[in-house]
Amino acid sequence: MNTNRDPGLPFNSDRLARSSDPATSKAAAGSAKKMRGAHFSLILTALEDGPGSAEEVSVRTGGTVDRVQVAKRWKELEDAGLVRRLEETARNRNGRQAHRYELTEGGRER
Fold first, then answer.
1. Which domains does the chain show, CATH number per domain?
2. What 3-state class would DSSP assign to 31?
3. What is the pTM of this model?
4. pLDDT on residue 32
5. Among candidate residues 15, 7, 11, the one with its CA nearest the CA of residue 32
6. What is the C-alpha to C-alpha distance for residues 69 and 59, in angstroms, rounded to an integer?
7. Cα separation of 77 and 107, whole Å?
8. Average pLDDT for residues 47-69, to the nearest whole number?
9. Coil, helix or strand for 101?
10. How many H-runs (helices) and E-runs (strands) does the chain carry?
11. Closest residue by Cα to residue 7 from 28, 46, 36
12. Phi, then psi, of 29 in degrees rounded to 5
């Protein structure tokens, strides 16, 4: 496991490509790492307007980060102490209940 802290990510990231992988895989891994960092920034900025579900946050980003991508990032952001899950839920466009998240103190001070 790589324990070097990437300044673009709010946590220590695992290696996204093996040393034996071809150059194309390594390039894709680097691109994914940059995209993940951009997603974190957009999600945190969207939450500055108040709590939101993955769908609500996606709308606030103008669709730049879709609701599936937002939902995939919740755990990492929560583990980093930047967001917390609320008890309240919201109905998404499919009529299902969705968890809502808000910025923590650490998320507001970033």
1. 23-109 (1.10.10.10)
2. helix
3. 0.73
4. 64
5. 15
6. 12
7. 9
8. 96
9. strand
10. 4, 2
11. 36
12. -65, -40
